Amino acid sequence: LITDGNSSVIGDVKGAFVSTAETQYLSLCMDNSSQFTVNALMYQQMEKSDENVQCNVELQQASTDQLEQFVEFAAANIGAPKEWLTGYYSNLINCKELFGYWQGTELLAAGECRLFDEFQTEYADLGMIVAQSQRGKGIATQVLHWLVKSANERNLTPICSTESSNVGAQKAIKRAGLTAVNRIVQIEFEL
């Protein structure tokens, strides 16, 4: 549809997001693009990390009675809509894939170790949010070290992504032993 300029079924296709891991789709999009930008970096653990890496934080698995606290935490620290967060975090809690780093009763960081369906059983998709007041203190790196270790203990390859503009997250991800192997590219098409 894109290459033939025949997108009457769905309307004008003005752009696309494509992973550099999908080379044929990327080539098709690039051949028909007017411009493109890197939207996000996609990371993967290329080698298992050193077993002696010090992990100075201990995350606790989230429970259903903590759902509201996680939702409030994420809404305050990344601005995501509470309605969406409630469904998303509820699912993670039910799947035992959401963790918290606490200081007393204060949630300082949330970590995710999401597993995949029956088709991608070898990966764990990691995610984390650190309280704005705690950023720049190394907590993100420590949370990621914990999540990487958790994935490795289950013989899973950790992966994650971050926006190309989020330099702080990029540094933490690299320190946790992951490598940016692919990109998500935002493509705009000529109309």
TrEMBL record:
CDD domains: NAT_SF
GO molecular function, a single term: acyltransferase activity, transferring groups other than amino-acyl groups
Record domain N-acetyltransferase: where: 57-191
Pfam families listed in its UniProt record: Acetyltransf_1, Acetyltransf_19
Protein name: GNAT family N-acetyltransferase
Organism: Vibrio anguillarum (Listonella anguillarum)
